[in-house]
Amino acid sequence: MLDLLVIGAGLAGLTAAYSAASTGLTVKIIAKGMGVTHWHAGTIDVLGYDSDGKGVARPLEAIGDLPDEHPYRLLGTERLSVALANFAALTAAIGLPYTGAQTAGDNLWLPSPVGAARPTFLAPAGQVAGDLSTGQPLLIVGIEGMRDFYPKLIAENLAKQGHTARHAFLPLSLFTPRHDITTLQLAKLAEEPTRLDPLAEALARLVKPGERIGLPAILGFENHPAVLERLTKATGASVFEIPTLPPSVPGIRLHSRLRRKLEAMGVRVEIGMEAIRFGAEGAHIGWVETETSSRPLKHRAANFLLATGGILGGGIDSDHTGRVWEVVFDLPLTIPQERSDWFRPAFLDGSGQPVFRGGVPVNEDFQPIRPDGTPVYANLWAAGGTLAGADSIRERSVEGIGVGTGANYSLCRILHASRD
Amino acid sequence: MHNTSWHSVGNSMDECIKCNICTSYCPVAEVTESFAGPKYSGPQAERFRALDQIAAPDHSVDYCSGCRVCNEVCPAGVKIAEINARARAQMAADKGIPLRNRLLGRNELLGKAGSFAPALANFALHNPLSRVLAEKVMGIAVQAPLPHWSTDGTFSDWLARTKHQRLRSEKKVVYFHGCATQYYEPFIGQAAVVVLEHNGYEVIVPPQNCCGLPLLSNGEFVAAEGYHQGNLARLGGYARAGYPIVGTSTSCTLTLKEEAPELLDRHDEATLAVKGATWDIFEWLRELAEIGELRTDFQPLGSKNEPLVLPYHAPCQYRAHRVGKPSLDVLSLIPGVAVRESRARCCGIAGTYGYKVEKYQIGMDVGAELFDFVAEQGPVSLTACDSETCRWQMEHGTDIPSRHPIEVLAAAYGLYDLEARRVRG
């Protein structure tokens, strides 16, 4: 029988599957659709803002200031650091290396799609040259007619923050005769030599000495590192990607490489399967069922890991009466069941909205617990956005929580112990 | 428990968060601008259709191939492909249906007509002059991989011929063969029958209609409903009595399970009984394997030192069945077979889509991903896929013969000649 069934294919689910499979456990992933990797910037944000909304310079050192129930507090700095280091090693192994700031432990400050400085901890090699901690002038290059990327806006906003920045446009015809195209398709086109060469030449003509070049995140899909290298060589400048609005090519690259790695390790990844029901005997879950075109399909496993995300990811749902529930196991939640308690009076309240801090409470092994602290099920674990205690979008900790709690080494230890 | 994907087709559009993941993955929008992409043609355009402001506002929805990659990747559970199918039906109702689409929708009629004199029919359809005429007059692409009628009789003929050899048993299963097996590829049905009998099951083959899918995908909902009614009348009794109904055509079984009920909006007792009793044959065999009841007396299929390398493409319909890849699970139990799993999104044929002159090249461009995958596997003698039109397209795109996994399984039991495509003994 399968050692572990992971529900959810976001960063938490993929990391969980990887860490379990790499210790020799048999693992399968099921997911309703593509996960949050397709929306986020492809970076690993660990902690960008503290509870007062102030930027965090060194996230791992700020964890002690978080509320007791925050997943990072349960995890502890050491487990989180190990998970992040292992993740960086994994990305190098799959040919998509992630690095941090030059001063180890600092946040990087990367330009967002509107030109704001965005704090993140680990970024793919293709994004780090955008770090706004250095004062190097920026040339932001857009593509005419491309939706969801506005170089003028980005350059203007960067200038307002004291950076030297200007913008330029390249024609879409450099890539395609089409009038409309998605970022993923552009990325695939950009790595074809017939498009890459003219792109490199055009950029070399545009750039002035001393500038670095920021482009929308479409610099190749399969051969992204080679595209980056070619452009850097041709222009003599550092070249970096700025994430576009979703869907996000850097996130899809990460998903695709991780998934391929998992599949090569024998992990089946089934997308389009929505968990709708489960069966348990006492405190032991026996199976999870997914909805199909006819009868539900049973997935049996010795253990289960819930990584379905929070309200945004669809792991937690609500209705107009104020009822909130966890969608697979109907686990206890810390979200108030009174709709009037979800929000503070001010929409943009600096300390965030209580509803977003709620989720599935867990113990130190990341097993979902009841209010009295006892595990709800003996063979159930949880990771990522479904966990209680973090306001992850506001504090910019989505991926750090995913990677940190996904790599659940105590789970692996426990499973091995029970198997031996 | 509340579940978004159990929403009705129409309401599911409200779950759309406009993230465009579907558009990014759509294999058709990637190769042509004729299709605006699933988000625009689906949940977005649907708002206008729903408001009855404009009837069928964008004709590009006709270029949706129905492969359902969008449904699979959608993080919100929007039934995009179904929204598009309904919009196509509305267009057909408004504008009328061209003769070509009426013909392509009538698989059963074509099959029956040709099988009176299959050799003649094959000549009439496949000679170069007729194909040029078919393209000019009707818009059926001259290169499109159309099937050949069986010159060895229909599947029913074979059943009648081998009546005395068929297994009688307490354990019974109903077999839905579909039109392609009946008229073009009776050997698929033969392989299915010997596999089921080898596992101790008597195979009941009731008279049956076309499942109606070709009509549904060409927007002829009224005619499709007629076929569906016929099948309910003939299969309903077995379903109610608890017999599993298994099929080798992933599109037919999908239609009985979901396409007909959802698109025709039928939720009557008979529809639900047949829906609940229908299985893809490998979905059912996998279930047998899981409870330890699938026979595993396999003979290795490769030669002594070399396994049979088998590039396998799961048809798009499995995506819609949402049962994973059951053939892959079962085939991987056979020693001496190295199954290589294709991750291509679609072969491009999408039922009758790739037959149409204006869509043939789109289909081939979509399929390139799959053809390239097969080429990367080195020299192989066979490929495999569960759906008939996909197999024909794969053969067309790769020049390598393709087999249904049930043929591979029958061969592994020593009951079937994989090369000659016939039952042994």
Features:
heterodimer; A: 420 residues; alpha/beta; FAD/NAD(P)-binding domain; Rossmann fold; five-stranded parallel sheet; 18 strands; 31% helix; B: 425 residues; 22 helices; 8% strand; globular; disordered N terminus
Strand order of the largest sheet of chain B: 2-1-3-4
Number of strands of chain B: 10
Q: Name the assembly state.
A: heterodimer
CATH class of the largest domain in chain A: Alpha Beta
Q: What is the approximate shape of chain A?
A: globular
Beta-strand content of chain A: 15-25%
- How many structural domains of chain A? 2
- The gyration radius over C-alpha positions of chain B equals 21 Å
Which pair of chains has the greatest number of interface residues, and how are they split between the two chains? A-B, 38 and 37 residues
Q: Approximately how much beta-strand content do the residues of chain B carry?
A: 5-15%
Strand order of the largest sheet of chain A: 11-2-1-15-18
How would you summarize this macromolecular structure in one to three sentences?
The complex is a heterodimer of chains A (420) and B (425). By secondary structure, chain A is an alpha/beta fold.
